Amino acid sequence: MTAQRVLIAYGTKNGSTAEIAEWIAEELREQGIDTDVRSAAAVRDIAPYDAVVLGAGLYAGGWQCDAARFARQHRQALTQRPVWLFSSGPLDASATEREIPPARGVARIIARLDARDHVTFGGRLTEGAEGFIARQILQQGKGGDFRDREQVRTWAHDIAAELTPAAEHR
User: Fold this and answer.
1) What is the pTM for the complete model shown?
2) Helix, strand, coil content of the chain in percent (nearest 5)
3) Nearby residues of 32 by Cβ (< 8 Å), 6 or more positions away
């Protein structure tokens, strides 16, 4: 199966998940896949896309609201095309050390959309982050950037391998 165009939609509060979405797009584009990156809140129609990657930051064990809403609103269309999901959030090295099972709400989205895969990447929380809880975490000295760009690129490369015939895959 060859996907002509891929949408990477994301829900983010402080921009970390948006950056992960861009890293995924970079890898897919390097593999010759036409890719658009958009905020989940800004997407009105997914008909132009042959596949979708949807990601969100995790907050209190659930997905950022724009991404969860996107999954609900576009459920019918999403079940008609390949879908991959990612979460970002752990503020430690755990996401690079082991596979983290999806949060309960995310597991329901995976099942509803019949997603091909889900992965949890480390998160980022740095000075200037919005929200009371975020500020509390930072005051406790537990912030930082725990995203692993190579882990993200490897996962995106695997998606590209599924979307492109072996003869075209670089």
Assistant:
1) 0.91
2) 40, 25, 35
3) 164, 168, 170
Closest CA to 146 of 117, 126, 118: 126
Q: Give the model confidence (pLDDT) of 107-118 as tens digits.
A: 999 999 999 999
Residue 111 burial class via C-beta count within 10 angstroms: exposed 0-12, middle 13-18, buried 19 and up = exposed
CATH of domain 5-163: 3.40.50.360
- Tell me the per-residue pLDDT of 29-68, one tens digit each, with 9 for 90 and over: 999 999 999 999 999 999 999 999 999 999 888 899 999 9
Query: Which tens digit of pLDDT belongs to each residue from 116-146?
Result: 999 999 999 877 777 787 778 788 888 889 9
Query: For residue range 144-159, what is the model confidence (pLDDT) as tens digits?
Result: 899 999 999 999 999 9
CA separation for the pair 32, 17 (Å, rounded): 23
Give domain limits for the chain: 5-163
Residue type at position 168: E
Are 34 and 6 within 8 A, CB to CB? yes
DSSP string, 97-132: HSPPPPPHHHHHHHHHHT-SEEEEE--EE-TT--SH
Hey, is 70 helix, strand or coil?
A: helix
